[in-house]
Known about the structure:
Shape: globular
CATH topology of the largest domain: DNA primase DNAg catalytic core, N-terminal domain
Strand order of the largest sheet: 12-14-13-15-16-17
Distance between the termini: 58 Å
Number of strands: 17
Largest sheet: 6 strands, mixed
Number of helices: 28
Number of domains: 6
CATH architecture of the largest domain: Alpha-Beta Complex
Mean pLDDT: 86
Low-confidence stretches: 104-110, 455-464
CATH class of the largest domain: Alpha Beta
Structural class: alpha+beta
Amino acid sequence: MATRIPQEFIDEVTSKTNIVDVLSKYVQLKKAGKNFVGLCPFHEERTPSFTVTEEKQFFHCFSCGRGGNVYKFIMEMESKSFPEAVIEVAKMGNIPIPDSYQTENTNYQNSDSRTLLKMYEETAKLYNHILLKTENGSGALKYLNQREIDNDLIKTFNLGYAPNNSDLLLQFFKDRSISEDILRKSGLFAENEDGQLFDRFRDRMMVPITDEAGNVVAFSGRILDKNASTAKYLNSPETEIFSKSKVLFNLSNAKKSIRDNQNVILFEGFMDVLSAYKAGVKNGVASMGTSLTDQQLYTLSRLTNQINICYDGDDPGVEATYRALTQLSDERFTYGVISVPDQKDPDEYIRSEGFEKFNSLVKNGVQTPISFILNYFRRHYNLNNEHDQLEFLNQSLQEIVKLSSPVEIDMYVGKVADEMNVSKESINKELDSLRRSNAIKQPANNYKDIQKVSLERATASVRSNKFDRIEKSERCLLYWTLNFPELKANLKGNNFHFVHDNYQKLYESLLAFGDINNNMEMSDFMNGLDDGGKNLLAELEMMKMPQEYSEQEIEDYISNINNYDLESQVSEINQQLKQAAMVGDNKLQLELTKQLIDLRKLLTSN
């Protein structure tokens, strides 16, 4: 069991860490005045509302309300405890971590999800050990070596081998007293006709699938026997920790390279990603299905705005690329195509032509989508035949009309005109006609546009949330109290109390923290708060406020808050007066009027 991480080490990590550097690994941040903004990683949005302040070392999303310091971000983003987050941030900053501070979750009782994460981590270690250290794994190791997957790459991707044994993994976890219910939920086991569990993966080379944080959440097992009648690949079923629509293979390894290269390469298969990685192309990912989902696109949009497709160069691969381009219409991205020559897949091309040629292809061989699509159409027509020429021209115009850049339109109109030996003027006339026709056919409502507008309205409604006079006073007073110790002392001496529980709770935490720590560091204070307190503190610290407060301003805030109870009583008595008047109860009206006069005197004197 690791020892408790001392405050001195936390202080060291905090002082050597810039929150912008850490969060930039997860979110594409852009400078906006003194702060940085980007798309929130915790919910989907079109307009950036996720803000990071370098000055205060906090983040806050003005849409969903999440906020905190660098440790809170890592805790939420990677499902880590506070000590684990401190260690993670230290690793990112290459800060030496004493062995006694290393954290390891060795129990299985926190939650089902945490148990499953631990099970998958241990399964990956077991399969990797079998591959590299046992006779059982020699065949799989030989297969990988033949495909030029060396031990360094095996280590990087934690590859393994599941032996042809129906209960090796099952017994492994039974010996660790994992419950039957969890075993069934894990997806690591299948069930026979009698309801008995057995290992799902047998005699397969195992590729661990990780989430964005690098946690193993699933496996893809590749069969080694080419003549086997079973499927070439067997993937984990969906579980509490794995959804194939959200996960992108290799994203956790690729994030830095995606940001550095300002693009992501979408490969068709896991082996292509591995080979490209070995060749030095480390910004590659692969989806768990045939096309990118909205969730995967949103994840990528936080890292880059350029997606390059690099599928197999054979006929099925070209067809898959065309389908992908027709489906990828998300306006947050620009797209490119890297066509692999000689009908090879990327893995074959790398092994036959070498690293240098593949790197050159990736850097210099990116086609625009329209260029690829026009080439795709050419494959399907005999351009020496007039009928096919007209069909090719018609389909080409259907694609060119979708372009928005006048320069791009002019360029491709020129290419098609030259190729078909027709004038640019006639093609432009056809394009004008197509635009008019498309405008008429365009439906009044488009589902994706409706979704976008709805999302932006929802975001705007949260951002424009108006606080009443009392809550505005509470927020401003608490902001100044957080930043000026003399106000805290003044409020404490007068037994001040906030109206709303969330502000009072944060205020009480502030008082307690101040009693222990004379020299208050905001990040240290935040570390001791619960999630709600962290969110609120970050929200308050992000408020646009003057450099200094005025005494009159503070007095007004305190007066507004102190008078809240009296004003509530006045409102209640006014309601009662209306009811008494309606029933003609003169005696009650007189009593209530006296109470109202007394309350108004109190309000005037305060």
